[in-house]
Each structure stands twice: as C-alpha cells, then as structure tokens.
Design goal:
2 copies of one chain form a homodimer.
Chain A lengths: L4 E4 L1 H14 L4 H16 L10 H9 L10 E6 L2 E5 L5 H19 L1 E9 L5 H10 L2 E7 L20 E4 L9 E4 L6 H9 L10 E2 L5 E2 L2 H5 L2 E2 L5 H16 L21 E9 L6 H16 L15 H13 L1 E4 H13 L7
Parallel strand pairs in A: 3-4
Antiparallel strand pairs in A: 1-12, 2-3, 4-11, 5-6, 5-11, 6-7, 8-9, 8-10
Helix pairs in contact in A: 1-2, 1-3, 3-11, 4-5
Chain lengths: 351, 351
C-alpha cells in the first residue's frame, strides 16, 4: 500500500508551525525560532524530529506543562564549565541560550561543557551541534529523554534514546555530521514497520515486553527498542545520562517525564560541548584533513549490494538539497493529525 | 576441549613482564611501569590488552621500531587544549605524561582535551581514563589503531577498533567504567570462536573478506569485524578518528601502521579529556547521584535467562577481586608464546 503524502514548501510549513505555537501561547519571536528548528529537521529528512513533534508540544504548551516565558538561569559558571537550570522552559529556547554560553566559554578556555537540568524536549540534537560548529568549534550535544529503553539484561525501561551528536566547524561543516540515538533504531522505525503491515523486523531492533529480543513486529510494538549492539549501547546511554543528568543535578532515568505525560514536568537534561579547533590547527587545515579522511572513506570499494560508501550526515544533506527545491513530503496521517492539533488552538491548516 | 591455563599471581607476572621489557632495551623504571599497566588489564580480565601484548611490543622495541627513550613533546598548549607529539615514543610512557597534562589543564580551566600524534599502542584505554579519574575528574580516552574495520557498505579496512572509554572520580570510581571498542566485538572473540572450533558466530559480529555480513567463523577469520550496530558504529569510529587523528595532525585511517608492521612507525593517535566534577557539584554529591543511578539499573527486573542487571565495569571489578587472590590464569598457548618472546631477549620464564 503506497503511502500518501502532502507536499509543502519549507517557508509555509514554518509559518504554519509558528502559528500553532503562537496559538499555544508562545511569543511570536520564540514561535518563529522553534518553527525554524523543527522545519530544519524536516528538510534534512529527519521527520521524527520535525513538525510532527507539534502534536505533543502544542498541547503541552497550551496546558502550561512548561514555562513559555522563561529562558532559565545560570546556576554556576567556572572556567569552561557551567551548570544551567532550564526552569522548565522550552527546550529549544533554553538550548539556544546554552549553546551561546558553550561558544563563549570555549572561545575563552579552549574547551567547554554546559550541562542543563529541568529542561524540555529540544528537537533534533543536530541543530544544536551545528549551531556550536558555526561559531568555529567542534560542537557536541547530548540529551536524555522519556524512559523507553531497558538496560541490557533488564526488562523495564530506564533510559531514553539518549543521542550522541557531533558537528564540525568551518568548511568542514558539510563533510561529516553524526546524530545518532544509542538504540539500534529509533522507535519510529518500529512504528513504521507496523504501519506498513510488515510482520517482522530485523534482529537487534527490539525486545518484547519481557525484555526478550524479538523480530515480531507486534511484540516489538508492545515492547522496547534495543540498545545499540546490546550492552555497548547501554554503556553509551549511561555515558550520556551521566553527562546530562548526574552532572547537572537534574532528573535521572525514571525521574524524567515525557512529552506524553501531563502530570509532571518533563525535567529532561541536555549537555553541550565546544572545542576550539583553531587552538589545535588553522580551520582551513582542519577542513583539508577532513576532506582527505572522508575521501578515504568514500573511495573504499563498496561491498556487494551497495553502490557507494557514505559518511555520516551525507544522506541528510542530499535530502535537504532536494527538499529545499521540491518541498517537504509529510505523510497524510501526520498532516491530518497536525490539522487536528492546529484546530485546537484555532489555527487553520494551509491549503 | 577444555583449555589449559597457567595460573600466576600479579606480582611475579609484573616482574616477568618488566624483565622482558628491559631485555628489549627499556629502562628499568619504564619497564616496571609498562608491566604494571599490562597486568592491571589482566587483573580486570581484559587479557587481550594484558601481557600477551608483549609478544608484539618486545619485538617491536628490540628492533627499535619505536623510540624507547623519548617522552614526546608539547606542540601547542592554549587554555584547556593541547596538541602533543609522541615522537614515536612508547604509548604508555607518552600517555602517562599526557594524562598529567590533561589533569593539570582541567584543574586550571574546568575542561581539557589533549590530542596526541605519532604515538604507539597504549594498552587498555581504561588505565588512562582511570588515571585521570583518580585526580578527581571525569576521565575520557580514545585512540585509533591499525585499520581492521571497514566503513559501513565498504569492503576494505579503514579504521581500528577505535575505543571510547570513560571513568568516574572519587568514590564513584567503582560505580561505573565504560571501555568499549566501536566494533560489535573485539577481533579476539572471533579468533577465540575459531580456536574453540565453533563453526558459527552470532550475526552482527563480522564481515567476510568481501564486506558481506557472515556468521561463518572461517569466513569471519579471513574477513573483518563489524562496526557496532552497522552504520552507527562506523559513525562513532569516525568521531574517535577526528578527535585523535584529524585534530592532532597525526596519521589518519590507512596512514596508521600497526604492532605487526615493522617497516614504518605505528603513528597511532590518542586523545584524553578531563572534566572537573567539583566545578559542577561536590564530589560526594556526584557519588551519591551515581549510587542512585546504578542502583536504579541494578534493581531493574532481569529479563528471561538472566539473573541480574549489571553496569559497565562491574564484571571487570568482580574479576579483579578474584584474580588478586586466586592469581591470573593465562591460556597455555599464550604462556608458551610469551616464553618464546622472553627467550629472544634472554629472559627465563618463571616456574
């Protein structure tokens, strides 16, 4: 069964998203910025972190589950380190401020690490690593999230998909960009297999509800995503949890709420790292070295069944070039759900 | 077929290892230190990174493939950043100096990152992260290595097993320790399956020599280890390569030699990060939070077939407690190979 799509250009999609956010009570300046971050994810083809998040955000915001006005505050700043409290502010607004801090501190001290507590969902991590990278730094970002993933050998969720994301500065910006959940695949891929009527999913994607690895789509839907490669993904998720939650003094593991939970603040954590490349070598030299390295990857003879070797970020840049011209295809189901969300805040979907 | 072991206590094993290193031309002080780092890995049960490395090291050293006297030199230092040239010195000697630098710089600036070029094999990454952690910091270490692993969709090696390692300070030291290759398993596990006569290995461990995933042990032996979880492990390996090789100005990817290659220096790279936890919160608070978090993992109900949930580092601490008392069992084949290596430098194996 072919999926139906509504195709919309980035600009009207941004305007629509901003209207919905304003309808939920967000100031117009903030709404425009948040809409921009979401549509950037759609342009890159990362639709799970694009405007479909508004179905969660808008209701959360309209019910004042988060503080729409605050920008949070600095708890401590010392050398290249900072603890920041988001004060239950909007994840994107707070992350924007914190990335400015991480940039300033890395320029002053060479390396910086800002850890953030009591925050909300910040969208795609790539947006923030790229913001840091555009200031001439290697930008790294992490976050924790609603517990969905069990520790290895366990059968109850203790972690979010706790992503690891790194972006590169200067002309190296488009040579490589890593943004990966520490699960084998995002839960969205399992939902998609279900939606498409696939009876099975590949081994290594999911557990059933008892924590037993399964390839049965129906069992996986009721189960949990698997940490990347088993115990190693569990270790990476814990590494992220330590940097964003233990170190920030914020909510850890099962203390974190969620975008579907209305009874308590989400309280997720984020961490941002900046590394001032120019202190190691001139940026153009760094770029030339990255060119050599990605060239060395891309010239690797492809294995059977593949036509080329890619580097991280490449599929998304290709997609962005295409979608900037052709527009963004949103699944009809997503579009209709967005329209229902919009209606709740008295916004009309564009034609 | 049961494997036969020679069991030896840590102290005489250290002395034996040190004698072999001295036999290869290393000063007695340096030899004792390197022997200590190797036996620490054996105590933790990480035998692949213990004294069996001497079979490579000793010949390499005796042939002066590395510089046994140098400690390398600082190329640049600025804020919390440093580029260090190992000048083809011994990996453990140079890493010890660089960890001292990373500790000093993190104490001065809060966060530090030392990247190292033209180095040699540094043993287990855990030793270095733990050294940094014992100074009250979160300690992180990375390295690249001899190309063995192909990029995803490629069929020729471009990466080492490029590990990611993080250790925690103070009383949190033994609450969690991550030290993981960015491949699904170490090549040693595939060798072991072969040695034990297992016809197949689990899916996801290896490619055949054409870069096609295989579960045939014989094809895997002639093939390549698989990046952890496929394209994500490839992304993580590249992240490591950027921090240790692109940023250091050293050898990248296929430019890196190896412990089995005698015709050119290894030129591997390392990177060390220090994060001064006390600038974020008192160390005892950090420890209490880690206790809560690891407790939250360990209290997760185990899934079918498992008796408990562990945290990273726990199997190794258990092993170390046992081996400190019972001694270190070395496979008879490893012991005999060591004896042959020792004989080459006129050292007699202990009885």
């Amino acid at each position: 069964m072919a999926e139906e799509y509504v195709v919309i250009q980035a600009e009207p999609l941004r305007a629509y998203a901003a209207q919905m956010l304003e309808g939920a009570g967000v100031s117009s300046e903030r709404a425009a910025f948040i809409a921009h971050t979401l549509v950037e994810a759609n342009l890159r083809g990362v639709d799970s972190h694009g405007v479909q998040l508004l179905n969660f955000y808008v209701e959360h915001m309209a019910m004042r589950c988060m503080d729409l006005e605050t920008s949070g505050h600095v708890v401590t700043e010392s050398g290249g380190t900072m603890t920041y409290s988001a004060d239950n502010g909007i994840g994107q607004i707070v992350s924007d401020v914190c990335c400015d801090h991480v940039i300033r501190l890395a320029k002053e001290h060479g390396v910086s690490l800002v850890t953030v507590r009591d925050s909300n969902h910040f969208g795609a991590a790539a947006f923030w690593s790229q913001k840091i990278a555009r200031a001439g730094l290697i930008g790294v970002s992490f976050c924790n999230a609603t517990p969905l993933v069990p520790p290895w050998q366990g059968k109850e969720p203790r972690f979010g998909t706790n992503p690891i994301c790194m972006a590169l500065p200067g002309a190296a910006e488009t040579s490589w960009l890593l943004d990966m959940a520490t699960t084998t695949v995002a839960m969205g891929k399992i939902f998609k297999a279900n939606f498409s009527g696939e009876p099975t999913i590949p081994a290594g994607w999911a557990f059933d509800s008892e924590g037993v690895p399964t390839t049965d789509t129906q069992k996986a839907i009721k189960g949990m995503p698997m940490p990347l490669g088993g115990y190693k993904g569990y270790g990476l998720a814990m590494m992220v949890e330590i940097l964003v939650a233990v170190l920030s003094g914020g909510a850890m593991s099962t203390e974190v709420g969620g975008v579907r939970i209305r009874t308590r603040p989400m309280r997720c954590g984020q961490a941002f790292i900046g590394i001032d490349v120019a202190r190691y070598m001139p940026l153009n030299e760094f770029h030339a070295r990255m060119d050599w390295l990605t060239g060395n990857m891309k010239s690797t003879p492809p294995s059977a069944g593949f036509e080329e070797v890619l580097v991280a970020g490449e599929p998304e840049w290709r997609m962005a070039r295409k979608r900037k011209v052709d527009g963004i295809p949103l699944a009809k189901g997503v579009w209709e759900e967005l329209a229902r969300t919009a209606a709740k805040v008295n916004v009309k979907a564009p034609q």
